[in-house]
Amino acid sequence: MASTKKVGIVGAGKIGGSLVARLSASRDFDLMVSDVHEEQLKRFAEGYGVRTTHSNRKAAEDSDLLIVAVKPWDVLTVLDEVAPAIEGVAVASVAAGVTIKAIEGRLPAGTPVLRVMPNVAASVGLGSAVVAANEAGQAHVPTVMEIFGHVGDVMELPERLFDAATALHGSGPAYVALFADALIQAGVREGIPRDVARRLVNQTIGGTSVLLKERSAHQIRDEVMTPGGTTAAAFVAMEKAGFVAAVYDGIEAATERARRLAD
C-alpha cells in the first residue's frame, strides 16, 4: 500500500482479535481497537502496541476503514453509535445475516459498505473469507481483501450467496470438529487409547486438507478406497446411516437460519 491505512476494529473477539494480532505486525496499518471489556483492550495495547478505546464513535473518527466485528444482534446498535462520525469512512461488517441494505439504512447516504464472512480459522492465519460491497464500497474491496488476506484466503462473492457461504465455511470449522470428535470416539470404541486416537485423527485431517489443495475430493477418495476393502465397507455403512444426506440437511438448515437473522 502507498500509505498507512487507519483501520478501526469494533469488537476484539475471535475475528477482531485475530485481525489485530496479524495486522499489528504490518507497517501498512495504523490500528485502533474498540471494545467494552477493559481486559481485552489492555491485552491488545500491551501485547500488540495498538491504540484502544471504549468508544466506538472514537474508533470511527480515527479511521479510514471501520471493521464492525460484533455479534449480529449488536451490529445495528454499533452503527447507530458511529453514524455521526462516519463521513468519509468505509464500513465493513463481519456479522452473519446482516445485509448491506440493513447497514446502509443506519449510515449516511453514500457510505461505502462491505460485508465480509470469515471463519474462526482466521485465529491461526488459515481462515477463509468472502467479500461483497455496495457500489460506493467497490473501491475499498482491494483494501479489505488485503486485510483479511493476513488471516487466510479471501475471495469476492455476490451477496445473494452469503447465507450459503455462512453455512458452508463460516460454520464449517464446527462441522469438521464434529466429524473429528466422532472419529476419535469411534477409535476409542475399537480399543485405541484416546490420546493416540486424537493424534491420529488430527494428523489425518491436517494432511487431508493439504491434499485437497492439490486434487479433488473424489480423487482422494478413489486413491484410498479399494474395491471390497476397509474404506469401501465404511462408506457403505456411513451411507446407510445417511451421512451425506445429513450434511446436505445441515447446510440447508444453517443457510435458512442465516437468512432469518436478517429479519
UniProtKB/TrEMBL annotation:
Domain Pyrroline-5-carboxylate reductase dimerisation: residue ranges: 159-261
Pfam families to which the protein is assigned, alphabetical: F420_oxidored, P5CR_dimer
Top enzyme category: oxidoreductase
Residues annotated as binding NADPH: N56
Its EC number(s): 1.5.1.2
Protein's UniProt keywords contain Oxidoreductase: yes
Record carries keyword Transcription: no
Record keywords, A-Z: Amino-acid biosynthesis, Cytoplasm, NADP, Oxidoreductase, Proline biosynthesis
Positions contributing to NADP(+) binding: A69, V70, K71, P72
GO biological process per UniProt: L-proline biosynthetic process
Main location, first listed in the record: cytoplasm
Pathways per UniProt: Amino-acid biosynthesis; L-proline biosynthesis; L-proline from L-glutamate 5-semialdehyde: step 1/1
Catalytic activity: L-proline + NAD(+) = (S)-1-pyrroline-5-carboxylate + NADH + 2 H(+); L-proline + NADP(+) = (S)-1-pyrroline-5-carboxylate + NADPH + 2 H(+)
Similarity comment: Belongs to the pyrroline-5-carboxylate reductase family.
HAMAP family referenced in this protein's UniProt entry, alphabetically: P5C_reductase
Protein known as: Pyrroline-5-carboxylate reductase
Protein's organism: Rubrobacter marinus
Gene (UniProt): proC
